[in-house]
Queue: 4 jobs
Job 1
Amino acid sequence: MKDASVGINDNLSRVLILVTFAPFMNNSEFNSSKVIDESRQGSATLLDNTSEAGKRKLYLESYGCQMNFSDSEIVASVLMEQGFVTTPDPKQADVVLLNTCAIRENAELRVRQRLQDFKNEKRSRPGLIIGLLGCMAERLKTRLLQEEKLVDLVAGPDAYRDLPALISQVDSGQKAVNVLLSREETYADISPVRLGSNGVSAYISIMRGCDNMCSFCVVPFTRGRERSRDPESIVQEARELFDQGYREVTLLGQNVDSYIYAGGGLKKDILTEEQKANSTSFAALLKMVAEVSPDLRVRFSTSNPRDMTNDVLHTIAEYENICNYIHLPVQSGSTSMLDRMNRGYTREMYEERIEAIKRIIPDCAISTDIITGFCGETEEEHQETLSLMEWVGYHFAYMFKYSERPGTMAHRKFKDDVEESVKSQRLSEIVALQQKLSHKRTRTMNGQTFKVLVEGPSKKSADHLKGRNSQNAVCVFPKDNHKPGDYVYFVAEECTSATLIGRTVSDFVTV
Ligand code: 5AD
Ligand code: SF4
């Protein structure tokens, strides 16, 4: 999928407007902590294999959001410790693992198709071990292990330390499964291997699970209750990355504003005033990471309107190296719809949060997630989403057709009653509007100077480099003597719908 394009994939009930403000645009790709990056779906996870002789070969394929890709780095790390090496070729593999996503039906369908491919491979190589990891594990374990016999091993998102034991169990001729969700697991002590990295930007997982129970969402069931990772281990990981030459970290969580660490365990168990007084909040964590070095940029995703405090906003404003970019999913602009979605806020409350962002961080870019065609959505409610989008003037949006997920509150309580054709029609209306808004945002940046972190070569020209400004806009400029990891001052002289094109200068200038 290209920068500067509008990507529509109806099959996946998902639309992306790939303008410059995709969260965490990374080379030609973009990634967001929760949002599925089509260009990376099903990509193989590869390690730098040093000595391969006699070692078992792992083929690891990842689907879903950035959290899942980050988990694959943990899986790879655990198995590398056990002497595995990775292979890009499933035909060479002794063990094939698929790290899966369950957020929309099509994500699951794609994985099932892939499992069928591997089952065929296993017919000619019966020793091949096939395992299913991630969000599909809990719901489909019985069906895939016993009924359809598509896999030998199933491990849920909190069971990755157990993978070596599960593989041994399969070696001894049994099926193996561990889908237990943990109260404690944050993988804090596992140093993830960095996969597919540009050597400049890396992800740090700061929490796991989600307690919000939005009615459409399967995540609280697949990834369990919310727990935060020890801040010291997060800061240490950021420090190590900085020492290795990385210049940007993105703190990942389903709801980063809800981060709270009071010695470990579930968020819901942090009850006493004393625990709360001695806890670390997300604002405090942001400060700690920002203070690793003024040359380490800090990004984060995903924020949540009901938990995002002014403290967090003031911290972003206070530190130059915390990027002025907030991904604040709204899902719908209609209060009645938000109520059915169990989002915990009204349109007015969301607007108040946007006003706070604009007041405290005036040049902050804002992006969002929107679901169209959720249960009972009327034309009027849909129009309210359009009017909210105009009112906010989002830089970027991820837009989805509602996909009913078994076991969710919406599945139990409501009917998925918006016609497919109506969902599609509404989706194309919000996509068209967002395209207009994104273009407008890019144009307002033209002519300004930005501090840009250089990420690597531009896709279109070997003589040009690309990087991003604090607001996450992609900037392209002549290479000169700059290299990835450098900070440059950049004047935007022209723009496409997606990209700022210009030149580097010695300091802030106005043109
Ligand atoms: N159908 C469609 N989109 C969904 N999302 C979450 N669950 C569903 C679903 N059942 C979207 C939300 C969320 C993003 C990660 O995925 O917009 O913010
Ligand atoms: Fe799902 Fe809502 Fe949690 Fe996001 S905040 S992961 S949409 S339950």
Job 2
Amino acid sequence: KTIDDLGDVAGLRVLVRSDLNVPIKNDVIGDDGRIRASLPTLVKLAKAGAKVIVTAHLGRPKGTPNPEFTLAPVAKRLGELLKDEGITVHFAADVTGEAAQAAVQDLDEGEVLLLENVRYDAREESKDESQRDQLADELTALADVFVSDGFGVVHRKQASVYDVARKLPHAAGGLVLAEVEVLKKLTEDPARPYVVVLGGAKVSDKLAVIDNLLAKADKVLIGGGMVFTFLKAQGHEVGKSLLEEDQLDVVRGYLKEAGDRIVLPTDIVVAPEFKADSPATVVAADAIPADQLGLDIGPDSAKAFAAEVAAAKTVFWNGPMGVFEMEAFAGGTKAVAQALTEVTGLSVVGGGDSAAAVRQLGFADDAFGHISTGGGASLEYLEGKELPGLAVLEED
Ligand code: 3PG
């Protein structure tokens, strides 16, 4: 069901689960992409005259209130962004307590209220269904209908994502629908060649998705920290680079199964230390010195990866190619991002880190086919797993 299927929402209290989990340091928001991506649904509901109540999380405060994880700066940013639309944003200092209840009472039609970090309440993430159920009841008491729009959390079986949807008339918000539509295109009959670029620190985080993508993609290009486990599995020394010894056998299996469909870098940018000003040199991927660590794919590899990407009709990219936050090790990530902007078919950037990388490197969002707001959620979707937050929306 979509928001339109809910009928006239004027005057109704609409509880929206958004994913507003953005990087914040000293009260300053880094990349506000997720806040921006949540706006269309909130604007649509507010303009239709709903009283919009937003529940969301920030970080992992583990069930205890902690000022480090307050959503107050997010409420402020939301207020700035919605001001142009003439929409007022309020903030409640608790999740479902007195402050939240009073704020809902005072909320006018066409206004937005953001509730405090739902993960301040230990019941949100509880494995005990009856605990989650209690919190879901409290959230449900604040609202008449529920809209699920936090795509980044649909892989979590949590009270504000899953249990609430079982208790209220519900619909998928525009962001969830848009994300699912794109991911469907990747899994069902992608236009070929279909090229996947995978980076990030750990192979172990991505085993299931690699399995699945190896079965679907024409080429899987590997960069980032995980590449050193692949190089080692091929028999090369990797110096002080990141290495997951316990994954070597699994990776050997991938290399055997996929043959030349797995593309590894041929050169690597190395430095003696993990530091922005550590002197960087380029070495062959099979000749990483013992006292150095790899921090980016090298320029020849960046060119080769870019050529594979540019020739593709469908591309999915997850995970930076190197330590892009440091100028000397940003070349690989920049080259891949640039190549993605040149794809004539569908280009998808998935995952919080990759989305932050492209924005930090100065690329505009609309240069890509789609930037997913979901990290874990988009990977789990591509693994072919059932996502609880989506499955529950299919129920009556
Ligand atoms: C994310 O950052 O991917 C989502 O907000 C989910 O956060 P989580 O991994 O802490 O559940």
Job 3
Amino acid sequence: MAVLISGAGSNMAALIDAAQPSDAPFEVVLVLSNKPDAGGLAVAQARGVATAVVDHRPLGKDRAAHERAVQTVLEAHGVEVVALAGYMRLLTPWLVGRWQGRMVNIHPSLLPKYPGLDTHARALAAGDAEAGCSVHLVAEGVDDGPLLGQSRVPVLPDDTPASLAQRVLTAEHELYPRVLADFCRAGRGRTQ
Ligand code: GRF
């Protein structure tokens, strides 16, 4: 599995840790970031996992060129499954098509509620009693695709977007490894 990140990579770290036991159903062979300064790169290196940076900025608006470069790195590492974990790039149909059924994402809301950004502020503004996170197969729309699992957390009276985000993130760290373990144990995502 490759984990794609743009930032702190706490979900990525949870996935690497879950892959440590010898009988774990997946192995993290690569952590790839589109940002050279993503904090998660050092986190992955400290855990002995190979890292790669495919910086999108020198390519300007050429999304296709960036994705071709990403694809080349994924293929070079023999990747079978791609886990997006705070990867802040919109994907084109080309890359999504390449990984159809083998690319998953985690999103900090109870999809189909609140795709996109600022999910916690939107949940609070709506007066929701609960929030949560979702893992889904990646399809062409933003945060769209068949759901693989969700976790729910309560919204508390004094919550701010930051406090709610922290509670949801803790749930993400449990949900993502569990869903991916089930996914891989079931043989989904396996290349022929
Ligand atoms: C998580 O909340 C994830 O659901 C969202 O971005 C955040 C990434 O956090 N897509 P981290 O980089 O895994 O710490």
Job 4
Amino acid sequence: AGAKPIVISTWDFGIPANKEAWKVLSSGGKAIDAVEQGVRVPEADPTNQTVGYGGMPDRDGHVTLDACIMDELGNCGSVAGLEHIVHPISVARMVMKKTPHVMLVGDGALQFALENGFKKENLLTPESEKAWKEWLKTARYEPVMNIENKQYEKAAPKTLPGNQYNHDTIGMLALDSKGNLSGACTTSGMAFKLHGRVGDSPLIGAGLYIDNEVGGATSTGVGEEIIRNVGSFLVVELMRQGYTPEDACKEAVMRIIKKKPDTAKKIQVGFLALNKKGEYGAYAIQSGFSYAVCTAEKDDLLIPGKSYY
Ligand code: SD4
């Protein structure tokens, strides 16, 4: 009790998302409500081509969304490959609340959403459709780096088909005034992925993990490498052993680099962690990763994540 609330989230679009989450936290609300409200902001933003509405489609032109949410009691809900719904995070929360399951996928997730009052909408914006059609000309699947990474923008310019807007999931972690932790993670996944491909973001333990005794972690980047290492769970378990949030994120990144040094040179993966005391940290393979922090004192901070390269 008597904790100082804090919310942190991935990338610069975490700033407006944190603001929304902060409204909940600053009025004494629950972390689980804060993270849901927070990530709904980028989900609804059509200019954000990596989350929710406006997200990049898969190679067949379908916008398929992945999201999960986890609370302080270890309750969790998740959807993967969900089409036509602007707020997959709220569907994930409903899976958590209303069903005996953790995860729904594809048509079943859509059916569940529609039965629960979510509206069916077209998520493919003209901009994302245009980028997809451009990509189809070569149809090369080369997920190279996040768009903020200047160093790699040269090698893989945004204009090069297949490289646009590939990794920018929002992962958010919050600690509320009662000292409870929750997290949310939502994405349209890797642009131009195979139809049916699921990333780390909707997988509890990979894209997100919360243990209210210890802390929480979330991830962004090439999901396959995060899944292989059960990244977010690993970060939380390392914090349990006494690692600081940043050291835990670093060790999780090092596992990826150690196992696949050549792959790691060419991809981005970043972890973000928050512990029970409200201490936070991040670490990424490549430079260019950033995260947003919001507390009563430090409103709207954007922090460059440390990185291996
Ligand atoms: C995925 N991790 O689907 C997501 C993509 C991502 O920043 O994080 N982008 O693999």
